[in-house]
């Protein structure tokens, strides 16, 4: 488990991270998402204490890193593998040589280094390119080498800082699938730092939204989706503003679906049971954390809106009123 308690970091008069408390359960894929400048990368570097916080504590696997001496901290950092956005590979070394580097610095024997590097390259699908030069590889392949290198020292946590942002969509998908497989097969906790909500949708079990150095929302995605007013849900399923031309006396509602109610014929049932025309103003459906989920925006005639909303909520659906009755 990773636990940050009241962590802050300032640069001059700017609070890059501002009193952040965060718990990341063991074995999860956890996303920290936010726009550029929100404090994500600083928070990532605080997790492995590449940046020491001005205040607060950082605990990884029951070890409080912020209390360790530098020599003990170096040893503790080996339990946290780091994957970088720009790969940070050495052109002077082969693919295998890059993966062996961390083990070489640890004093691992040459034979053991070679065997472990080959094992990790096989895991990421590059065992056949072990002797290749780094410059011969595509961007996605270089990222896989970076992941293999991060895994070489057998960490319990894999930390990825915007590691897919420079890749094309198809390569990004393959790298995210690799992270999920690593999480599943090796039992690692994977922490993804990203500004891309699609990364959270496709890969994460839980997430935290950070803005101006503060975590404004966090939780398991299956729970967040069901939370009224959730900012994360709004970004997972963006429906935009109410379209122009919607009558002022109409009621506009957002319905959030998750799990077993995602495939119900809700709209057809409303039209049948209430004898009204229901207009769909927007919809978004995704598979999130293994669960089919989505939001639908409806325009409902004002005279029946109260009964329609009561009906939907009686079915266990999350209904938020944007305009009209109870707005």
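^ structure tokens above, recovered residues below v
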């Amino acid at each position: 488990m990773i636990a940050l308690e009241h962590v802050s970091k300032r640069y001059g008069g700017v609070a890059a991270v501002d009193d952040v408390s965060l718990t990341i359960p063991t074995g999860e894929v956890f996303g920290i998402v936010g726009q550029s400048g929100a404090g994500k990368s600083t928070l990532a570097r605080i997790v492995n204490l590449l940046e020491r916080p001005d205040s607060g504590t950082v605990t990884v696997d029951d070890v409080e890193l912020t209390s360790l001496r530098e020599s003990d901290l170096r040893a503790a950092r080996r339990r946290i593998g780091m994957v970088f956005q720009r790969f940070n590979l050495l052109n002077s070394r082969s693919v295998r040589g890059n993966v062996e580097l961390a083990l070489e610095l640890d004093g691992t024997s040459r034979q053991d280094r070679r065997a472990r590097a080959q094992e990790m390259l096989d895991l990421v699908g590059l065992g056949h390119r072990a002797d290749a030069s780094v410059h011969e590889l595509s961007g996605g392949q270089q990222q896989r080498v970076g992941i293999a290198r991060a895994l070489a020292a057998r960490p319990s946590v894999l930390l990825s800082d915007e590691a897919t942002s420079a890749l094309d969509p198809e390569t990004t998908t393959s790298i995210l699938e690799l992270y999920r497989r690593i999480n599943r097969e090796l039992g690692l906790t994977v922490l993804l730092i990203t500004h891309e909500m699609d990364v959270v949708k496709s890969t994460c079990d839980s997430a935290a939204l950070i803005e101006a150095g503060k975590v404004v929302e966090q939780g398991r995605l299956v729970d967040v989706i069901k939370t009224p007013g959730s900012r994360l849900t709004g970004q997972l399923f963006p429906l935009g503003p109410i379209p122009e031309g919607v009558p002022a006396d109409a009621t506009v509602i957002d319905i959030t679906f998750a799990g077993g109610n995602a495939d119900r014929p809700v709209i057809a049932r409303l039209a049948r049971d209430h004898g009204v025309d229901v207009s769909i103003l927007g919809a978004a459906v995704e598979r999130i954390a293994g669960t089919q989920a989505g939001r639908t925006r409806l325009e409902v005639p004002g005279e029946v809106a109260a009964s329609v909303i009561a009906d939907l909520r009686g079915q266990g659906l999350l209904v938020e009123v944007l305009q009209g009755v109870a707005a």
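The longest strand covers residues 14-24.
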